[in-house]
Amino acid sequence: MVDTTQSSQASTNNIKIPYDIKWVVPAMRHPTRLWHFASAITLSLVGIFSKIVIKYFSSAKVYNRKNILKAIDERPVDVPLITVSNHHSCFDDPGIWGTLNWRNVLRPHKMRWSLAAHDICFTNSTHSQFFMWGQCIPVVRGAGVFQPAVDLCVDLLRRGHWVHVFPEGKVNMTKENLRLKWGVGRMIYESPVTPIIVPIWHIGMDDLLPNEPPYYFRLGKQITFNYGKPLDLGDVVKRLRARNASDEEARKEITDIIQHELMKLKAETEGGGERDRKKA
């Protein structure tokens, strides 16, 4: 058993933190009524904006949307959900969720929690409040799998919540095949109830909001979203525990499976074929 508190503190000691974010995760762990109110408004407004941009101001094709809708709407209350996707633009989250139904984006208590880069989204108190209310958790890149952000995600999953992860660990501007970070493996392995996992691959989000200046939306762009089949890694987790796999072995094996499934979805999305017969 790893002492995650000590590991979390040690992992950030040598990393530059532009703004002191130590207060953010505790505030998210113990939200007040005012926090819940502000969060509900923020999530709803951002959801409406994303829905409008994707539905009315871009040319979006969405495939297999039923996979994510069923996972959100029909899973038992104690079963957590993890979504994983490629990361090509700073608008990926919340933009991806513009593909959901209106009832989904207007029910903030059912919306995702998401990891967000501390050095981009949490650079001052105003930005930190906004992203915190948007259920974004400040992750310190380079701090490893034992840090407060991942600890909080594990706790959220234990309570049946939905957590979204960009396992590439950064905006992949070159679109190379990056080795996925093991944080998602830890989340899945340590969740008392194995999460439903829905992989997502999208194309064109960096055309909608480019990664180079000038930073503004280019409307009317072609975007593709493909929701993969839900993954059940319950048997994998049981097998790892039965053979007394180390935590590191478990995280790696689970993350490797996620990587394999994402690469399959990438090939399907970029190649068309079977995907084109499954448009939602």
Describe the structure.
This protein is α/β, with parallel strands linked by helices. 45% of the residues lie in helices and 14% in strands. Strands 1, 2, 3, 4, 5, 6, 7 and 8 form an eight-stranded mixed sheet that branches. The relative contact order is 0.18.
Fold blueprint:
Layout lengths: L3 H8 L12 H6 L3 H24 L2 E5 L1 H10 L6 E5 L6 H4 L6 H4 L7 E5 H4 L3 H9 L2 E4 L8 H11 L3 E4 L17 H8 L5 E8 L1 H4 L13 E6 L3 E2 L1 H9 L4 H25 L9
Parallel strand pairs: 1-7, 2-5, 2-6, 3-4, 3-5
Antiparallel strand pairs: 6-7, 6-8
Helix pairs in contact: 9-10, 10-13
Oligomer: single chain
C-alpha end-to-end distance: 44 Å
Q: Name the average pLDDT.
A: 93
- Mass-distribution shape: globular
Radius of gyration equals 18 Å
Number of helices: 13
Q: Output the helix-strand order.
A: HHHEHEHHEHHEHEHEHEEHH
Main sheet makeup: 8 strands, mixed
Residues in helices, as a percent range: 40-55%
Class from helix and strand fractions: alpha/beta
Q: How many beta strands in the DSSP annotation?
A: 8
In what range is the share of β-strand residues? 5-15%
Low-confidence regions = none
What's the quick description here?
The protein is of the alpha/beta class. The protein has helices at 4-11, 24-29, 33-56, 65-74, 92-95, 102-105, 118-121, 125-133, 148-158, 183-190, 205-208, 234-242, 247-271; strands at 59-63, 81-85, 113-117, 136-139, 162-165, 196-203, 222-227, 231-232.
Brief descriptors of the model:
single chain; 280 residues; 13 helices; globular; 8-stranded mixed β-sheet; alpha/beta
